Amino acid sequence: MERNPDGPAGADYAFQAFEEHAALLHAVARSVLGDGGEAARVVEETRARWLAGQGDRSAGFPNALIGLVTVLALTRLRVAQANGEEHIGPWLPEPLRGEPDLQLAESVSAALSAVLGMLDRDERTVFLLHHGFGLAQADIAAVTGLTEEAVDVIDARARARVRCEVRPVRRNDGG
């Protein structure tokens, strides 16, 4: 349920909204950055900025928070790239511990890592926000500063790259 951030208890609403969506924000940041520690730092920066009144709250709390954390995560990636870093960390979380289906989870993680590794930064961002977190293309455009048309083109390109068929390995068995 969205609340009016400009009402008499706006700071309380902002804090409550952040707390309600903190896990989602961490998941978004981790998906963009690929590292839990960096994601936690970006989420803390998001919290500080959000509680200080930064961020476009007109979009509603979840979308505004997702927008703010995505912008901060993308900024962190750009800074890392400017400093010569390839990427901040592994593209997927560390292995799950104590999970009953650990082998399946690790297989899915490896597959998703391979898929995300095929995408460039913009494709990965649009793909994760749209297909992973269900954001509309208009919201992604607002968050990333791209036009809706550019988001549509990038999403189509990412989907096409994800759907590519793996060519079978030819065995040279002498026959």
Topology, pairings included?
Layout: H1 10-33, H2 36-51, H3 61-82, H4 102-117, H5 121-132, H6 137-144, H7 148-162
Helix pairs in contact: 1-2, 1-3, 2-3, 3-6, 5-7, 6-7
Please supply descriptive tags for the structure shown above.
single chain; 175 residues; mainly alpha; 7 helices
Characterise the protein shown here:
With 175 residues, the protein is mainly alpha-helical. It has seven helices and no strands. It has helices at residues 10-33, 36-51, 61-82, 102-117, 121-132, 137-144, 148-162. Helix 2 packs across helix 3, helix 5 packs across helix 7 (148-162) and helix 6 crosses helix 7. The radius of gyration is 19 Å and the shape is globular.
In short:
With 175 residues, the protein is mostly helical. It has helices at residues 10-33, 36-51, 61-82, 102-117, 121-132, 137-144, 148-162.
Provide the helix percentage: 55-70%
Which sheet architecture does the biggest sheet show? none
Portion in strands: under 5%
Q: State the end-to-end CA separation.
A: 66 Å
Order of helices and strands: HHHHHHH
- Average of the residue pLDDT scores: 75
| Oligomerization status of the protein chains | single chain
- Annotation field: number of helices: 7
* Radius of gyration of CA atoms, rounded to a whole number: 19 Å
Parts with pLDDT < 50 across at least 5 consecutive residues: 1-8
Class derived from helix and strand content: mainly alpha
According to DSSP, the number of beta strands is 0
- Quick one: overall form? globular
